[in-house]
Design a protein that fits this description.
There is one protein chain. The chain is of the alpha/beta class. The protein has a single domain, classed as P-loop containing nucleotide triphosphate hydrolases (Rossmann fold, 3-Layer(aba) Sandwich). The protein is built from 7 helices and 10 strands. It has a 6-stranded mixed β-sheet, with helices on both faces. A 4-stranded antiparallel β-sheet has the order 2-1-4-5, covered by helices on one side. β7, α6 and β8 form a beta-alpha-beta unit. α4 packs across α5 and α5 (about 140-150) runs parallel beside α6. The structure holds adenosine-5'-triphosphate and magnesium ion (MG). Adenosine-5'-triphosphate binds near residues 11, 12, 38 and 40. Adenosine-5'-triphosphate binds near residues 12, 36, 37, 38 and 40.
Length: about 220
């Protein structure tokens, strides 16, 4: 699903991750941990084509990251669902309009099919809030559910989430994790960066740690 071979990643000419090897296999739930500034977000940005690979080779859902044509990045982003800490919903649009915006941008035209698809992802993300509501009328947890529903619109095989629970209280965080877990059980591969140690203790998954420019798998005992 994702493979990076001897990859070096920089931000403004400063090397962040050096000669790393990283793999996510289909069906896995993978946590990416590490201190602030260790390169988690940088790695995630490489995966959705926001920053280029300096050295090495990478592949994500069949796209070659080394030779990613700028005009093709939107095709890659259609194949993966991306979720952020700050939700990134469009503030002047309702839940329905936020969803509709994405579907229109990705070529959907049939109004009935659009409605069906929106209803279906909102149901999958267990959202019972009216679709006419605006983001400012929602709690943090509801906003993240809507953001996850939006990430599901184009039926991704992989969801990449950068600190999806970073702005949420512990209880809400856990319900968002339950949702991601459910999606994973439905066959969607999940890669999520997190600071939240409680989550990796509570929810099973492979753990990779970014540290001192490297990335390695961590084996922990769970209780
Ligand atoms: N846009 C940018 N321009 C220049 N340097 C950046 C940029 N974004 C991040 N960096 C630097 O890259 C390094 C890695 O940052 P990154 O955001 O990947 O870390 P992180 O592990 O996601 O941290 P956090 O846990 O705080 O989110 C840091 O030293 C940071 O200062
Ligand atoms: Mg980060």
């Amino acid at each position: 699903m994702v493979s990076l071979n001897s990859v070096t990643i920089s931000q403004r000419n400063k090397q962040i991750l050096n000669d790393i090897n990283f793999r996510v296999n289909p069906g896995e739930f993978v946590f990416l941990i590490g201190r602030t500034g260790s390169g988690k977000s940088s790695l995630i940005k490489v995966l959705y084509g926001e920053i280029p690979i300096d050295e090495g080779n990478g592949n994500i859902v069949g796209f070659d990251l080394k030779n990613l044509n700028k005009n093709k990045i939107h095709l890659l982003r259609r194949k993966i669902g991306i979720v952020f800490q700050d939700f990134k919903l469009l503030q002047d649009m309702t839940i329905f309009e936020n969803m509709n915006f994405v579907l229109k941008a990705t070529g959907w035209t049939n109004k009935i099919k659009i409605k069906e698809r929106i209803n279906s992802v909102l149901k999958l993300a267990s959202i019972d809030t009216p679709q006419e509501k605006y983001p400012f009328e929602l709690s943090g947890g509801e906003k993240q559910r809507v953001a996850i529903a939006r990430a599901l619109l184009n039926d991704p095989k992989l969801i990449i989430a950068d600190e999806p629970t970073g702005n949420l209280d512990p209880e809400t965080s856990e319900s968002i994790m339950e949702l991601l877990k459910k999606l994973n059980e439905n066959g969607i591969t999940i890669l999520m960066a997190t600071h939240d140690y409680n989550m990796i203790v509570k929810f099973p998954g492979k753990i990779f740690k970014c540290e001192k420019g490297e990335i390695f798998e961590v084996i922990t005992k769970r209780y």
